[in-house]
Amino acid sequence: MLDKVESNAILDRLPAHLQQYIKPQNYDDYTPVNHAVWRYVMRKNVDYLSKVAHESYLDGLKQTGISIDHIPNMYGMNRILKEIGWAAVAVDGFIPPAAFMEFQAFNVLVIASDIRQLEHIEYTPAPDIIHEGAGHAPIIANPEYAEYLRRFGEIGCKAISSAKDYEMYEAIRHLSIIKEAEDTPKQEIEEAEKKVDYLQNNMGKPSEMAQIRNLHWWTVEYGLIGTLEDPKIYGAGLLSSIGESAWCMTDKVKKIPYSIEACKQEFDITKPQPQLYVTPDFAHLSSVLEEFANKMALRKGGLEGIQKLIDSKNLGTIELSTGLQISGDFSKVIEHDGKPIYIQTSGKTALSHREKELVGHGVKNHPDGFGSPIGSLKGINLAIEDMSPRDLRAYDIYEGEKIEFEFEGGIKVKGEIITGTRNLQGKIIIISLKDCTVTYGEEILFKPEWGKYDMAIGKEVISAFAGPADNLSFDLITHKTSTTTIKSKSTPEREELNSLYASVRNIREGKDAKFSLDAALELVKKHHPKDWLLSVEIYELAVGKDEKLAKEALNNLEDVKSLRPDISHLIDGGISLINSQLVS
């Protein structure tokens, strides 16, 4: 997909399985109404957030090249973002959490390039360019926060999901799309909400991905910083919502000191948050992240880590104490005294070391799964991986020798040694045998007629994580979503309204316009009586210069408020901002 977008050195490093999510921004598709929505939100936000946001926000707007008046062009953003070591790409709505986090690990900001409708100007459950561009981008100009974001992605993309997590992702993605789309039947939204609610209440034990996603939500998306008594906003969800950024500062939202306990707190993307977490500083975020990572299978491995991979029903990797990494769909583990003594994968499997596939041990060599004992030999205090060449010879672990290994726990491997594979430190990590039989009591785990047997060497499993060790080992370009974002329909009425908005914008920028301000106001009154934002923009240009027109715009806004009392506060907010800036 990078051949369709303007790339740079940071984007060029992205692996193909992440590039599959990237789409062109199609900047020309943004309408004048879209730009007006962006401008209203940004003007309101900058005015309000200058008082309540973390100091990095306003500085970051300047550093990331984000304009208040126009939706940012991602290519322009990238030219500026590269100065702080980051880049941005456009995607279509929500993407899987693991992919989202892996982008962060590469210092790439994922931006949903669609923009919310005017009807949802305060808040949308769907990710959009206001949320991503105006929320996430400015704060990454803070070096400590940027490193937290990168590190979070690096750890988060290794978190193991449950089988239900992807179903939940698809349900939330679908709900966010239809709630943002125009004219979605109420019944369809209610059914989608019921499905999300049902899944949330029937997820079972939260997976690592579910828990770290919670941490991401309560920090990156909805985080506050400072003290409980005087918190400041840094979370992108708050920075991009003119409604919730004000709501969150009230006593109606409970403020809680941020700790690892936040990983247990679920969230609902469709509603304002009833509680928020406050971190004293950005360094504390990293401390909690490391605390959580220490509890992950990524760092603990063991029987529990293998079982998490089996339960996930997804591609994952275990790493043994020799550094050998086994990637595949784990289907079975045999345990003894609380420790794994045999592991089995099903289907394509690859063996790697230090995230690089071993020659001769890709999925073509292991197309039907891989099984191996783990642990120490029975009655021998010295593990195979710790044996010197002399020790190996003494125990007949030598090329051409017929041998029977009996491991603690009862796994037996009998066959003729063909060769061994060593790592860079000289430790033997694989022993290959022919005419091999592997048994566990009466159960036969491998038969001679199945061919060469590769036995992994490692006394313990030190790590287990989602995804392959070497991304090139597997075909990962398989992402398909059941839904795509729904674009607004083009109608003659909408085209006329866009033309009016374009004229007002051109007048503001000193360009030729199709309609004068007076004509634009008359047409919006006559043909678009429910529209309010254009009259606000006309008032902004007329006040102090053409008081008659300014008064007519205000009168029209009063008429709109009587028709639509639900948006009165948006109209009042826009007028108040204009008047306050006029005075200053």
Net shape: elongated
Count up the domains: 3
| CATH class bucket of the largest domain | Mainly Alpha
Number of helices: 22
Total number of beta strands: 17
- Helix coverage percent of residues? 40-55%
Strand content: 15-25%
* Rounded Rg: 29 Å
Structural class: alpha+beta
CATH topology of the largest domain: Phenylalanine Hydroxylase
Question: What would you give as the CATH superfamily of the largest domain?
Answer: Aromatic amino acid hydroxylase
First CA to last CA: what distance? 48 Å
**Parts with pLDDT < 50 across at least 5 consecutive residues:** none
Characterization of the model:
The longest helix has 21 residues, at about 30-50. The chain contains 22 helices and 17 strands. The model has no long low-confidence stretch (mean pLDDT about 90). By secondary structure, the chain is of the alpha+beta class. It has 3 domains: about 10-160 and about 205-285, Phenylalanine Hydroxylase (Orthogonal Bundle), CATH 1.10.800; about 325-465, no CATH class; about 490-580. The two termini are about 50 Å apart.
